[in-house]
């Protein structure tokens, strides 16, 4: 295999520790995946899984020893759709750039994180528990997953949840089985074990996902404030009353990076926006849609006024409705890179009423570094029961000093936020040791789990600290 064919699988931001891949394979179906895993076990060859398209921030060569890249991007079919139950079965190569066009004829659209990259795999995003905007419809951390088909590191195929039943996918679908249940079979919960494991336990061949029905009407509003705290309280009240569908809170710099693409325009817009902005999307189905939108707008306006705030259609010349349009047309780039060309992020979970103290901490530490800027994204999860806090540090990748400063500041922020109670539920790289250090009993349990599902340690070696 020629070297140029492996170039797309090299890390876009190498650290110098990555090993070049040995080769690449492109499975066409679950049987191919199982055959590759069994071959790898037999020959002791490690595998790295890739499912997103070109342009990912970090590609397959993230292992510190040579691996064979299992490229799932060619498995990009929408296998089944049921508009009535709002469920679809898709393969890992389906990206956010394609998913809505595949679902639209059925009156559905996908749940998405904030402005996902077009080439990002939908199932990879869900496996990594990237927070979706539609927190009002997230009942469990597995959502929007239903049943799935996995290939473990043993080479065994296994179906989870509602899919854990005899018969083919076609036969089950004809019989009316829609794989809506993610947990199972029985009392087991294999998909929850695999979710967040960074590809170290199994390879996902396909999965059923719950989808959002395309609304008959939708409206959106911005609510600006000088600080995060009043918006966090308002967001919690909206979730309690179930007013809205999608929501997030962003600092002026972060929201400007969503709405604009050029660095100068981002900076100019950020200067005209309030310090923090709550975005709320209201939706209504075909039954009395005008009435539903009207009472939600009334409630939203009243609750905002009681907090001393105002819900508006636009801010600084940008309509809140633009967000829905941008979400429907995912960009090719990562919007967090728009301001300076690259970024470092620190993200973790906390309670909504505690998010402001982490924001204050980040702003204080960033203020101590000349030229440092921090953009902030707070994403409610699970009906607002907790939230994802992301601290984005933009920097110029052509400047070695800026890159080093951003790396150092990200490390300091991660340590400080962890010490203050931030829960690093997605521990990448150096965060893994930091996140697991407080409970020494966790690593042995994780190692035992790894030995069960991937006894030869061939899947994504070195990705997690316990390997």
Q: What is the helix tally? A: 14
Strand content: 15-25%
The CA-CA distance between the termini, in Å, is 30 Å
Strand order of the largest sheet: 14-11-13-12-18-19-17
What class, by secondary structure content? Answer: alpha+beta
Mean of pLDDT: 92
Taking Cα atoms only, what radius of gyration do you get, to the nearest Å? 22 Å
Q: What form results from the Cα inertia axes?
A: globular
| Range of helix content | 25-40%
User: Which spans have pLDDT < 50 for at least 5 consecutive residues?
Assistant: 57-61
Q: How many strands appear in the DSSP assignment? A: 19
Largest sheet: 7 strands, antiparallel
Describe this structure in words.
By secondary structure, the chain is of the alpha+beta class. Helices cover 31% and strands 21% of the residues. The chain has helices at 30-43, 96-103, 122-127, 169-174, 190-194, 229-241, 252-259, 263-272, 289-306, 321-328, 355-367, 400-419, 431-436, 442-453, and strands at 23-25, 47-50, 68-71, 78-82, 87-90, 108-109, 145-152, 157-159, 202-210, 212-213, 217-225, 246-251, 276-284, 311-312, 314-315, 318-319, 342-350, 375-381, 386-395. The strands form five sheets. A seven-stranded antiparallel sheet has the order 14-11-13-12-18-19-17, with helices on both faces. Strands 4-5-9-7-8 form a five-stranded antiparallel sheet. A three-stranded parallel sheet has the order 1-3-2, with helices on one face. A hairpin with a 4-residue loop joins β4 (78-82) and β5. α11 (355-367) packs antiparallel against α12 (400-419). The longest helix is centred in the C-terminal third of the chain and has 20 residues, at 400-419. The chain is globular. The protein starts with 22 loop residues before the first strand and ends in a 14-residue tail after the last helix. The relative contact order is 0.12. Mean pLDDT is 92; it is low at 57-61.
